[in-house]
From TrEMBL, chains A, B:
Organism expressing this protein natively: Paenibacillus uliginis N3/975
Annotated InterPro entries: aa-tRNA-synth_II/BPL/LPL, Bifunct_BirA, Biotin_CoA_COase_ligase, BPL_C, BPL_LPL_catalytic, HTH_11, Transcriptional_repressor_C, WH-like_DNA-bd_sf
Ranges of the DNA-binding region feature: 16-35
UniProt keyword list: ATP-binding, Biotin, DNA-binding, Ligase, Nucleotide-binding, Repressor, Transcription, Transcription regulation
Protein family (similarity comment): Belongs to the biotin--protein ligase family.
Native organism taxonomy: Bacteria, Bacillati, Bacillota, Bacilli, Bacillales
Positions that bind biotin: 111, 115-117, 182
An annotated GO cellular component: cytoplasm
Function according to Swiss-Prot or TrEMBL: Acts both as a biotin--[acetyl-CoA-carboxylase] ligase and a repressor.
One example of a Gene Ontology biological process annotation: regulation of DNA-templated transcription
Protein's UniProt name: Bifunctional ligase/repressor BirA
MF term (GO), any: transferase activity
Record EC number: 6.3.4.15
Domain called BPL/LPL catalytic: residue spans: 60-255
Catalytic activity: biotin + L-lysyl-[protein] + ATP = N(6)-biotinyl-L-lysyl-[protein] + AMP + diphosphate + H(+)
Length: 320, 320
């Protein structure tokens, strides 16, 4: 097999002629197989006369590596790893409806219909990112659900910092940015009966090992990845474990001490705080300065007259 | 057919012998067929020597009658009438996920797995009640969802009053009582993305034409029906229309003027107000006097020291 030949060769060049001879296939067939491997996440340098050299092989999501890395008690101990799925949110929702316990995780190499907030698409190409959904069964009443969105953002930021050294900033409510570009989106879906939360699905999408050329044109100016920020590939299995450890740890703190310590952590790592913001909320446009978090998790915006308005939902633009 | 003979006879007695002769079946077969009709909602008086007389025939849910009664613009104009289903909530949820518009109604003659709050069963026998689920797509943020539960309770109470003259009282958050016994339960389920409500399903279950003997023993002391309260059968199609008209009208008021007018209506028709209450909430037991509604829809409970605590969820007991 072509892949075996390259793996044996460990980084050395192989000419197309040599490969074609060893596999007894045409040069065109060699080229086609290399492109197939490329689309599966393998990378090759191709040079005239020298031929091909494998420069990178994908590091697949691996339940065994994951469970070896987990130091927590429950989050991620039940895990479903998928090669491709429409949306891990849908899979996790189905599992939650079937009674899956808190901490159950669904993760996929690729989402073909990844979703962001407000019905937007979420770009989730094969093997390049962390596209995952975690089932929570919180005891807090419905109207405090926003707090869990913020908690998740803080946890993912901490995991990225610990694993890669990269300091992402949190843009209210749930985007992580590096140098103003989005590297992670969080979407918390909940299913409720009156004020009782049946379950939440915390959807986390992180652009890990994408290169600039991996993005469609419309995303190039607004999106970035951990690889682009750090200059090298990041081990996804390690990062996932770190995220699960951080979420479980903050969630425990939250259940013991309430939202206040989470709010402090959020305020300390937010790029929204003390900035001039323009919020497009369902109730109209609100301009002012982001002044902190309301105890419910809403963003407090101070207008020119010093009045504070809690903003519960909306799209926010940071002004210069 | 046996039914045709009784329908022709319009309330007159027919002897078993006569029926057995006209249908050319045995007396035992007559008796069996009458019992079959009874379980389908028909009622018979049986007297020695005179025989049988049909005293009541079921009034089935009828989409044609329903749509003729509706005076509103949209709620209930898309309707699915089912003979039997597990739970109209599940059916409505499926329709909502498929994109059904606000105001879509699912109604069933019988639920085999009707659900109440906190996973409790909801008794929903064939032909005797209103077991229905209405799809709402509110624009209010998630943390105000409780307000819609209260709005629904007010609307159903008004419809019952207008249609039957019976004054039910609202027990916070969403039970309707007659003389301290439950006649209607309301369950509002919501599906959300962050603070954005994708849809709500307002589940409404009303015991309309049940007689005391229709209830299982464990419900006899705590449940009642509109028939038991009024002494006669109530036309379900008319009541359903009235409910849809009331909900649409209050919902319009709510969208224009906010929760305040709804809260006033609720407070005026609640049996919880100004009563000593004991609340079993997820955060512990709260004792005090029900003092009114918090602007979010929570119940304000005043303790001995005069402090007000908003209660968002829980089971409430009214003290003597």
């Amino acid at each position: 097999m072509l892949l075996d030949i390259f793996l044996e060769q460990s980084g050395q060049f192989l000419s197309g002629e040599e490969i074609s001879r060893r596999l007894n296939i045409s040069r065109t067939a060699v080229w086609k197989q290399i492109n197939k491997l490329r689309s599966a996440g393998y990378e090759f340098e191709a040079l005239p006369r020298l031929g091909y050299r494998m420069t990178e092989k994908p590091e697949p999501l691996d339940p065994a590596v994951l469970s070896a890395c987990l130091t927590n008690r429950s989050f991620g101990h039940q895990i479903e790893v998928l090669r491709s799925t429409t949306s891990t949110q849908e899979d996790a929702r189905r599992l939650a409806e079937e009674g899956a316990p808190e901490g159950t995780l669904v993760i996929a190499e690729e989402q073909t219909g990844g979703r962001g907030r407000m019905g937007k698409k979420f770009y989730s190409p094969f093997g390049k990112g962390i596209w995952m959904s975690l089932i929570l069964r919180p005891t807090q009443p419905l109207h405090l659900t926003q707090q869990l969105t913020l908690l998740t953002g803080v946890a993912v930021r901490r995991a990225i910092l610990k694993t890669t050294g990269i300091e992402a900033g949190i843009k209210w409510p749930n985007d992580l940015l590096i140098d103003g570009k989005k590297v992670c989106g969080i979407l918390l879906e909940s299913a409720n009966e009156d004020e009782f939360v049946r379950y939440c699905i915390a959807g986390i999408g992180i652009s890990v090992n994408l290169k600039e050329e991996d993005y469609p044109d419309e995303l190039k100016s607004i999106a970035t990845s951990l690889r682009m920020a750090s200059g090298h590939n990041i081990n996804r299995n390690e990062l996932i474990c770190s995220i699960l450890n951080e979420i479980e740890s903050l969630y425990g703190l939250y259940n013991e001490q309430g939202f206040e310590p989470i709010a402090s952590l959020w305020e300390a790592s937010s790029v929204t705080m003390n900035r001039e913001v323009c919020v497009q909320s369902p109730r109209g446009v609100i301009n002012g300065t982001a002044a902190g978090l309301h105890p419910s998790g809403a963003l407090l915006v101070r207008n020119e007259d010093g009045e504070l308005t809690p903003v519960f939902s909306g799209d926010i633009t940071l002004q210069r």
